[in-house]
Design goal:
This protein has 237 residues and is mainly beta. It is globular, with a radius of gyration of 20 Å. The protein starts with a strand and ends with a strand.
Length: 237
């Protein structure tokens, strides 16, 4: 039996932006692994990457589309009256307009975290008593952390899903998932810093193909159960 950190949280209107979306800021239904890892690292004050396993699940009330003010510019582009809406530093041109953004409504989430043993206490305390408001998604998408607990988990032969969940495609056969019926997302997870000081997704564990698996289904051997919430299924990545 293994102990993990369980975070119960809520967001009202939030965008977990898909990297490939530009004209309309499309959103994932749940935050990708890298987004959650970034929030945890910010809470802990980590300046270097600390690996940890995650299980991300939740339920929401659907999505809406909303207008937002969009600013765009090219590095070094000179301001031209009649072409640019804004002038920065008296010489650089910036376009200002409106665009659409998708927002997930009333997202109730439960996130389970398995940090390294030496990081466990610090991660728990940092999420229990964060030094500042945490965000998940855009900078303005504040995260309402309702409770943080240390719980125990164990494996079962069959477990029912109470919430929608990300499940790695690589685990489909073990868990008895029919691949043809599921939506698959290409999610980012772990990065490394290059010699030039840039972030780059790792070749291993950098990106994860994951099913968005809906509540109400049953998972086979390989899934875990959260003892805090009886019969709640967990799958870690």
């Amino acid at each position: 039996m293994e102990k993990v950190i369980r975070v119960q949280c809520f967001q009202n209107l939030v965008n977990y932006r898909k990297p490939s979306s530009f004209i309309i800021k499309e959103t994932f239904p749940l935050p990708p692994y890298s987004t959650v890892l970034g929030m945890i690292h910010a809470a802990c004050g980590y300046q270097e990457f600390h690996p940890m396993k995650l299980c991300i699940q939740g339920t929401n009330s659907g999505m809406v589309s909303e207008l937002y003010t969009r600013y765009s510019f090219s590095s070094g582009t000179k301001y031209e009256e009649g072409r640019h809406q804004l002038c920065v530093d008296g010489k650089y041109g910036v376009f200002k307009g409106i665009a659409n953004v998708e927002l997930v409504c009333d997202n109730h989430m439960v996130i389970h975290i398995i940090p390294a043993e030496e990081d466990f206490a610090h991660v728990y305390q940092s999420l229990l008593y964060p030094g500042r408001y945490l965000s998940l998604g855009r900078y303005e998408d504040l995260l309402d952390i309702e409770r943080v607990d240390i719980v125990k988990i164990h494996q079962e032969e069959e477990v029912d899903l109470k919430r929608d969940m990300y499940i790695p495609v690589a685990m489909a056969e073990t868990l008895g998932i029919e691949k043809s019926r599921m939506t698959v997302y290409h999610l980012t997870k772990e990065y490394e810093i290059t010699k030039q000081g840039l972030r780059r997704w790792k070749k291993e564990n950098g990106r994860v193909n994951a099913f968005y698996y809906p509540a109400g289904n049953t998972l086979g051997q390989g899934a875990y159960v959260d003892d805090f919430e009886e019969d709640a299924a967990l799958v870690f990545c």
